[in-house]
Amino acid sequence: MDGLKDLQKKYLSLIDSQKDLNLLEEVRVSILGKKGELSLKMRELGTMSPDEKQTIGPVLNNLRNEITDKFLSKKYELEEIILNKRLETEWIDLSLPSRNKSKGSIHPISQVTEEVSVIFSEMGFSVAEGPQIETDWYNFDALNIPPEHPARQEHDTFFLHREKDDIRAPNVLRTHTSPVQIRHMISNGAPCRIIAPGRVYRCDYDQTHTPMFHQLEGLAIDKNISMANLKGTLEVFCKKFFEVSDIELRFRASHFPFTEPSAEVDLRCSWKDGKLEVGKGDSWMEILGSGMVHPKVLDAGGIDSSIWQGFAFGMGIDRLAMLKYGIPDLRAFFDSDLRWLRHYGFSALDQPNSHTGLTK
Ligand code: PHE
Questions:
Q1: DSSP H/E element including 303
Q2: For a tag site, which of 70, 123, 187, 216 has the least CB within 10 Å?
Q3: pTM of the shown model
């Protein structure tokens, strides 16, 4: 029993002298842990006579409770010291001005893509998409551009690598959004009205060309669609996009393998003092290629060309953005220069959408 008194003293002062939480825990384990001194002592109870048990048992229990209490109060004490130290060093000056939150802006291409999509969706067109890596069948053959066709060379195509003994034609980075026409025809059939905005690639680089740029494809197929519908659609589009009530379009006969007849469309404009004005003046600006979908293209898309016909057009989104917002160099679009983006970018809170229509 006297031995227990000594133990009690030893433990209590050992706990009391701790200054570190981790060491305190080590001490606790050495006393109360599974192999702790006191735990072993309690295990010895099992080997004692009933009399001994009756006297020593309660004493050991009390000792264990006392040590546990002591340990807990020491723990709180040390924790409090740590907390007070932190409170002394870490504090917040609520009177400081808040940090500036930098606000991003919408890239002109995203803005124009959104504007154009809103205008066409109001006319009943939905948005379709296709992959940027295409097989040469979708990019060329299905669009009536067979392997020997000179138009293949004109496209400055990027070809993807094939293993040496792989004889399949290489895949390409799509050179235009027209393959989306084929994909949509195959998966949705006729009738249809879609636009397909997206990235396209051609090996070309100067002030008005970058190897990656953006096009918007349009396709409408029905039983009695004509060039007149194409013209009407494009007129409504130009009026809304350039925000002028009077515009004049000029359809110039042209050639695309996938349309017959084909037309390039020019917009009347003036460049007085370097400023573009749409709808007046004596200049014409080419804005897109278009035509009636070639029967071979309908057939490639699994649509019966003796029943259905349609129009298609393709325009450069980047070019539309340059014209509408007076941006002189296309290359700057893709430099990711923050000063440029802040100057030409748009507010994220001021975006056109299909519910509100154009906001500007
Ligand atoms: N795909 C053509 C181009 O990239 C544009 C176009 C699309 C022309 C649809 C006619 C019809 O130049």
A1: none
A2: 187
A3: 0.72
| Beta strand spans in 208-256 (E) | 212-222, 249-256
The alpha carbon of 323 and the centre of ligand 1 are apart by a number of angstroms equal to 19
User: Position 308: which residue type?
Assistant: W
- Cα separation, 255 vs 151, whole angstroms: 10
Domains of the chain, by residue range, sit at 2-89, 108-350
For a pocket test of ligand 1, which of 258, 262, 320 has the largest count of ligand atoms closer than 8 A to its C-beta? 258
CA of 178 to the centre of ligand 1 (A): 6
Residue 147: pLDDT over 90: no
Distance 341 CA to ligand 1 centre (A): 29
Q: What is the pLDDT of residues 91-135, one digit of tens each?
A: 888 899 988 888 889 999 999 999 999 999 999 999 999 999 999
290 lines ligand 1 (CB under 6 A): yes
- For the structural domain made of 108-350, what CATH number should be given? 3.30.930.10
At 55, is the secondary structure helix, strand, or coil?
Answer: helix
d(CA 116, CA 111): 9
| Closest C-alpha among 172, 145, 147 to residue 158 | 172
- Measured from the Cβ of residue 116, the count of other Cβ atoms closer than 10 Å reads 24
Establish how many alpha carbons lie within 13 A of residue 161's alpha carbon, considering only the half-sphere containing its beta carbon.
2
**CA–centroid distance, residue 328 to ligand 1 (Å):** 24
Residue with tokens 């109870």: 45
3-state SS class at 23: helix
Is 23 within 8 Å of 38 (Cβ atoms)?
no
